[in-house]
Amino acid sequence: FARGWATYCLSLIESSGIDIPDWVFSVSLVWEFQISPVAPVAIIICTIILILGVREYSFMNTIMTIVNVGVIISVVFVGAWHFDTQKWMNFLGHGEAMGSVTGILQASGVAFSLFIGFDKLTTLGGEALDPSRSIPISLVLSLAISLLLYLGVSVVIVGLTTARTMDQDAPIIESFRGMGLELFALVVTVGMINTLMASTLSALVGQPRIFFQMSVDGLIPSFFSKLNDRGIPVVSTIICGMVAGLLALFIDTKSLVDMTSVATLVGYVAIASGIIKSRYRKRPFVLPHLALKKKNMKFSRFEYCESIAESVNSRVGAILVIYIISTTLIGLGLRFGWPISFHGSFIVIDLILYVALQILSPTNLPETFKSPMVPFLPLCSITINLILLTQLPAEGFYKLLTWTGLGLFIYFAYGIRKSKLRGRSVGDHVNTFTDNSKKMGVTDEGTIMFYGTEGSGDGSYEHFFGPNVNI
Question: What burial letters (b/e) apply to 458-471, b meaning 16+ CB within 10 Å?
């Protein structure tokens, strides 16, 4: 976003007749490194706003959003007035596969990087008054409104210019300039600068809070969780701003987009898989009347019930792994033109796995906002994201693997040893009560827990009875 912001700033200055040396905005180095001295300015401005506080961020974001929506709506209406249906005759995407379905899939995979900011809303849950209600509503509404605006702009721009003549750096602005609308193109340029600044701000607001929670859990050093008197993770915000500024300074736009697109799609696959996994997760249980009749719970019964739960959980995990592999092969088949019979066999496998999940039936239902139509909707998400993922250039995967390797190094070098979650038992943070025959506990979720003493007196054994057990 900061790189694009610098590009549109250059376009605005050039349109005003001011001559600026090219090295101010871009200097090519070796490989994919390309210095953009102006790009970090956007990062610095956004970092200062975030340090000031959430209210200031919310105020600035609201103003920028109002301006953005106004500019986008004007683009749709002005573009519709000059719309040429003849240019819709052939508008398939750019790249090696121009004029094919693969080209559309490749372009769609890149376009997913536009949806990177919405997930950051979830990181503000600790600063929302009613997060269980406001965050789901905000996510759904913002996604729906933004999708409609994106579609509107895409439709009219394709009606102003063809894909083969469309400018790659500033397609919207150049499309209007091509129609002779120089003044409106200038207005759109200012709007794009504002839009990219708002996108940079939204992209930076979430990561410091993710680092804050990781620091609280002990996965990264404690200074990431330092708060100022206004409750802002200042150190984490500054570090994120510095790293983002360096990336914007040295890495060219295409490399950043490739990496961001791959990371976004992989993240959505992981989230959809996590929804299925958590919804089907079964806890070990025992029959309540048997547990209450005995002073000492037999370990064999606990182990038997635990093995049932582990069996169900492992089956769901295996189904997800096979489904991801099968769908990935379908995507690769589409990209490389493999036979239809090849696709058909893996589609049948995916359908069988879907039926298997339906038979198992989800049991762990959240009480607040929950994803509907599980497992159908998450599996559709996994399928679409994996097919788009397999159409992207391999360079993006190499970059993602590099960053993933760095994250794993930090985890195994520091996080796994310092984690406060390590070794935590199931019975932590349980309110217990005792009588003469048994020791039991009730979690905040109403889950009954039993502490049965081992016959040898070596200690207590604690386990879940299961959710919603009445005594």
Answer: eeebbbbbbbebee
Residue 379 to residue 386: CA distance in whole angstroms = 10
At residue 413, what are phi and psi to the nearest 5 degrees?
-80, -30
Q: How far apart are CA 387 and CA 21, in angstroms?
A: 43
**Of the candidate ranges 14-28, 87-101, 359-373, the one whose mean pLDDT is the lowest:** 87-101
- State which amino acid sits at residue 148: L
Measured in degrees and rounded to the nearest 5, phi and psi for residue 344 equal -60, -40
pLDDT per residue over 8-26, tens digit each?
A: 887 788 777 777 776 666 6
Higher pLDDT, 386 or 22: 386
Confirm if 94 and 107 have CB atoms less than 8 A apart: yes
Q: How far apart are CA 459 and CA 471, in angstroms?
A: 25
The C-alpha atoms of residue 459 and residue 453 are separated, in whole angstroms, by 6
Contacts of 276 (CB under 8 A, 6+ apart): 316, 320, 357, 374, 375, 378, 379
Task: For residue range 270-325, list pLDDT tens digits in order.
Answer: 999 999 988 887 655 444 444 444 444 444 444 445 555 566 678 888 999 999 99
Give the total residue count for the chain: 471
For 135, residues 6+ apart whose C-beta sits below 8 A from its C-beta are 121, 122, 124, 125, 128
Which residue is listed with tokens 């790293």? Answer: 243
What stretches of 217-252 show up as alpha helix (H) in DSSP?
A: 234-250
Is residue 116 within 8 Å of 266, Cβ to Cβ? no
Contact 380, 350 (CB under 8 A): no
Residue 227 near residue 214, CB atoms below 8 Å: no
**How far is 218 from 270, CA to CA, in rounded Å?**
23
Q: What value does the CA radius of gyration of the chain take, rounded to a whole number of Å?
A: 27
